[in-house]
C-alpha cells in the first residue's frame, strides 16, 4: 500500500515537473530579443512588442574611437563610441511621427543630421535646448531654425540640464551625455534606451511640462535668424 502511494506521489511530481518545463519552453518561445549590448542579451517576455532596455557607456577610451568615426563602423571595443552613436542615429532614423528633444547642449553634426532627416520625412519635431545654445558658435540652433523645427530655449534662471529624447512617444533615450562630439568621444557618460511605458510616460509628461513653461523661441534665437 505504502509503495503504491509512493509511486503515485513520485509520478505526480514527475508530471508536474514535465508540465513546468513545457510551460517554460512555451514562455521562452514567446520572447523576443531586441538588443544585445556588451554581450548581455536583453530579453523580456511580451505578448505585444519587444521591450527595449539598452545601456551604453562612454569612457576615456572612447577618444580612441574618434579615428573611425568617419567610417561610422564600430571597432572591437566593448563600448565602441561609434557603435553607440550609430545605435542612437538608428533610433532617430526610426522616428515616423514625433521627435521630442530636450537636451542641454546639442552641437554634434551626426545627430543634427539625423534630426534634419526626420524633419524632411515629415516627423513632427519639438526641441528644447538651453538658451546658451543660442550664443555658441558650434550651435546647430540656426540650422534647426532654418529647417522649421519648433524650438524653445530656456528663459528661466534654472538651468535646463536634461538630456533626453522621446521617439514617437514610445522610445526614450536618456542619460548624462550632451549631444556633442567631445561628450561622445572623451567623457565618462551613460545612455539608457527603453520603450518601457512606465519609464517613458513620466518623461513625456516632463517634456510637455517644460514645453508649456518655456515660451516660443527666445529673443537670442530670433536674433540669429537670417
Ligand atoms: Zn570604436
TrEMBL record:
Pfam families membership: PLDc_2 (PF13091)
UniProt KW Coiled coil keyword: no
Organism annotation: Temnothorax curvispinosus
Domain of life (superkingdom): Eukaryota
GO cellular component: mitochondrion
This protein's name: Mitochondrial cardiolipin hydrolase
Domain PLD phosphodiesterase: 156-183
Gene field: LOC112455344
Any single GO BP term: piRNA processing
